[in-house]
Specification:
By secondary structure, the protein is mainly beta. It contains no helices and six strands.
């Protein structure tokens, strides 16, 4: 499968509230922590990256019994190192 037009497949994940650098992660309902599963060819992200994404226009997808969401790369607010 290839993604087009700066779209990504992400999986929502639960991680601890604080990064190793001491940054507190938001828990608001409009932000979610996700792991990137699949990217388009020209993306700056790669599969496995952890990101904070804005909840909004997404398309839920079930792939191999895994619940994923397709979003546009512009909905990514930050990459978690």
């Amino acid at each position: 499968m290839k993604m087009k037009n700066k779209h990504l497949l992400v999986r929502e994940i639960q991680i601890q509230q604080k990064t190793s650098g001491g940054l507190l992660l938001p828990k608001e309902k409009w932000n979610r922590i996700a792991e990137v599963v699949l990217v388009c060819n020209d993306s700056i992200l790669k599969p496995g990256d952890k990101v904070i994404r804005n909840v909004g226009r997404s398309t839920p997808i079930e792939f191999n019994k895994d619940q994923l969401e397709m979003i546009h790369e512009d909905w990514i607010m930050a990459k978690i190192n």
